[in-house]
Batch of 3 targets.
Target 1
Amino acid sequence: MAMKEMTEVQEEARRCVKCGNCLAQCPVYAETLEEPLAARGKMALVESIKEEDPEYSKRYYKILSQCLLCGTCAENCPNGVCGDEIIREARALLVREKGLTLPKKAIFKYFLDTDRLMPLVLKAGASLQHLFLEKIPEESGLRLRFPLPFVDSKRFIPGLAPDPFLGFRSGWFRAEKETMRVGLFVGCVSNYMFPRVAAAALDLFLGNGISVYIPGEQKCCGLPAFGSGDDETPRSIARKNIEAFAGENLDRIVAHCASCAAMLKLDYPVLFGPEDPFRARALAFSEKVSDFTSLFAGVWKPEPGKAAPGTRPVRVTYHDP
Ligand code: SF4
Ligand code: SF4
């Protein structure tokens, strides 16, 4: 990865002219109304911070960590300041300098990037969660007495599915009258919490003449580690995911989680610098990646004013990371 130095990141942050155009769109600012947490405040902080500053690690990291990396500030910046990228780079610099916290290190290196531990632990968790949580009413205070480690007790986490999607669906699924071949990137949330979403995607593909290859050895996309400023773990994960889809003749690689799609398409090439021999493979892989919705918008091509076959009059929200 072409790692940026502090001076380069600060130079980019200095392009912010503090106009405040990004303020109204920042979801973190909307929630907290705290100026330092919007892109303008963070750019001011990044450009002025000094590594020898005693506040460098603690308060600085706390402020930087309160960003969803949604990129809305960058989209609304008239000066072309990529707030989300600068914030992630600043986190990465901090991690390079000070290292990851112990819980993050344990989760990223020994959980996300392993072949067996994550499936085993989550499978065990799916069996045991019934013992603890299912019989306790949602509103009961007892739930707060069994907090999950490292998770805010007020945060709602959906239950784990009894069987992960990849545990019972992997390999090739052939469509009749095949028009296209895609690889399906399932993602952790679909795999462990909502397998029915991945199953619905598979059905839609097959019903529309699209054959699907699902490599059973695919992993987390690596976004949780990448967003936290860890560059090593996502690089290792990216190599494994790219290998998992290699060797099959695929027209597209599709992710139905928009965050996973953005990670595979936009961030995998960033992980491998110009000198890295793996960069060409990462670029070729990311060129094939499509978000599920954008792929289907092209496949169905409904006539203007007419709904696509099978659509129902419902309101939906669309996650556009
Ligand atoms: S990040 Fe862009 S939009 Fe936000 S204050 Fe700076 S220049 Fe203005
Ligand atoms: S990336 Fe999103 S959450 Fe972060 S500062 Fe920009 S708008 Fe706010």
Target 2
Amino acid sequence: MACQHQTSISRLALERAKKVMPGGNTRSSVYEAPFPLYLKSGNGAHVVDVDGNAYLDFQNNFTALIHGYDHPGVNSALMAQIRRGLSFANPTESEIDLAEILCHRVPFFEQVRFTNTGSEAVMMAIKAARAITRRPKIAKCEGAYHGNYDYVEVSLDPVPADWQTGAAKGKAYNDGTPASVLAEVVVIPFNDVVATERVLERHKKTLACVVVDPLPSRVGLVPVDLSYLRFLREFTARHGILLISDEVLSFRLSYRGAISTYGVEPDLCTFGKIVGGGLPIGAVAGRAETMRVFDPSRGKPPVSQSGTFTANPLSMVAGAAAMRALSEVEIERLNALGAQARSQLSAALAASAVGGHVTGAGSLFCVFIGDRDVKDYASAYHAWQQRQRLSQFIALCRDEGILLSRIGLGALSTPMATAEIATLTVRFGRALAKLADTTSAAVA
Ligand SMILES: Cc1ncc(COP(=O)(O)O)c(C=O)c1O
């Protein structure tokens, strides 16, 4: 099928967008040159662009749409709620339903607080940690993405020259980041116990929390080592520091989330994406004793949370329907498909002249072009030329009717089965062959 789709309507849409949005864009992570595909609709595992081309979608809105598109359970819950009302200035029972579902799934989730995004969930967890410990600093792994709160953006994209040497000095991501923000962030190297301990030891008296993602997408989508997690848990408990597991992306790894599979209990867990059934959401959860920091029933709580659309019933009912449809058996089926995808794509890369590596876990995978062993931020880092090549490959996959995210990340959805993985493998192989051709043509 598909080769070099006709995409003139997407191109025109960008021209229109450029007049009213800077760069024609309102989410930097989806910016694409010369123009992005504008999508019109989705059904099951497929999406259709404004020019009428169909794609097998492994983006699933940055992993959020675990049921793909047009899921009947999510849709009917939403339609019923639309008729009842979109949002209110009072709580609705829909938020209790979703909170109960989540607390029932995860043993250490005794209480939940909802937010509108994963970024906001991370921000609320950090505020909670600061209020509980009365300390200002946070520690995060170099290169790890935790959303757009100023503090967690620190050292999101250090270049090789900035790589940590144990100095734990944060690097600003956005221009204008105050020095005071940088001063409150301690940067640790992912999965490196010795270097991390050296850094944390120096800051232990001023640290409120350590934030860790068990499967950090920008750190190569490499799973956290059990020994690293155990070290973080032990060190933080010993020094009165909170451990926050950021599972906005990785909650899908098991029925009980990501960190539960390691048998390690954090103080707080942040999540979002799949638990909103495709609508905006975020959440913070933990033991009641910790979550008490948000409790307004005895006067102004240590951390007061607001938000016009927090726990809005549309997100709540869509999330509840999505979670009910995501049984333990279904997650295991999806994870087995993920393992199949990783192994077949790895084999295709190994057999090709291009070479490469596939990382990931559960129903997530990430493709790296060129020979490299990806194990941390430094080894996952794309220099400019490597980034160009990855973009070229992702565009070739798109021409074959496969959508991957710009960093090479793929997320499976429940409408997928072995047939979709077989389709992915065949088209991925064709895109690789084209990439190899362009490379040899450039060399010749
Ligand atoms: C680990 C992690 N934390 C936080 C966020 C931010 O979530 P949101 O985009 O909903 O603000 C993301 C988003 O990709 C994420 O992957």
Target 3
Amino acid sequence: MSGVVPIPIARPQIGEQEQAAVAAVLASGRLVQGSEVAAFEEEFCAQVVAGRRGIAVNSGTSALHVGLLALGIGPGDEVVVPSFTFAATANAVRLCGGVPVFADVDPVTFCLDPAAVEAALTPRTRAVVPVHLFGQPADMTRIGALAAEHGLRVLEDAAQAHGATWQGAPVGALGDAGAFSFYPTKNMTSGEGGMLTTADAGVERTARLLRNQGMEERYRNEIVGLNYRMTDVHAAIGRVQLRRLAEWTAARRRNAAALTAALTDLGVPGITLPRTASGAGHVWHQYTLRVAAGRDAFVEELTRRGVGAAAYYPVGVHRLPAHADGVVPNPLPHTDAAAAEVCSIPVHPGLGEGDVERIAEAVDAAARLLA
Ligand SMILES: Cc1ncc(COP(=O)(O)O)c(C=O)c1O
């Protein structure tokens, strides 16, 4: 709409403190895996994952990859993953030589359905990667029980869920390891970056070796590794952001509650509002609606009205060309339905005065137009 400033679907909160922190690192001359990275690991883990150990890397994808390798995933190993996620979850399995086995999601939370995980297990299953999608934790009680029963490793994909909790315990501290992303649109950013978290000293050591060419001591390479190091420039940004994470999470929760109240009042037709599972401490990375019919036209109409909207994710990963050889042991009706129907609208802490009302009115108008 002309004259109206669009409300973006995401707005990274970068200010003077981040700029000053970056300038200080540049002036220090120590740019990679120095004291800023060590401090970021300590501070992130103390604040977000109840004191587990953290290995900072250069992306969330790297954290998933290193995590799976450190958990011992290798060629031919089957790893159960959701198909309704960002492709990185399954890519990491493939990058280890493993086989992604796609299981369906719960239609309310959009997270891995434990019953579907159980139905996908074979004697070759070695691990499961629950994704805490849109900031809502997966049912870690039932997934943890399945893993214990069948001897599986659990790597949490917590890329979208910094600070989320399940039964009061933080995600990233519930499985054998957790992988976080600090991409700019995430609940906190370091520019690019990721963190693997674990309480297992063996996993921690292997992950530290893997991120740096297999070396602890310079030129004494113990294993074949990668260069997944985080820079101090990125860590410095992450440390500043961490100090505001709790405040931003509170804002996301307030915005989500206000959106739900406004959309409920308006009685928008053909739209299902997001729900939080009992036991879940949701951090609202996304506020995701289900649109009964005409989702793509609905996204277009919202965009035309100046409200950033997006379908995360419009195609199940098992239907992507890259994963055509993944295993789909059972049909994935909830994944396919979600991919066809979801639409996320802005919930980020950058929303200003009156934005929630504007978003709700646009959703209402678009829904009525297309009903
Ligand atoms: C669910 C999920 N897993 C993994 C990733 C990968 O993180 P990154 O983009 O930092 O590599 C992302 C984010 O992009 C994600 O949303």
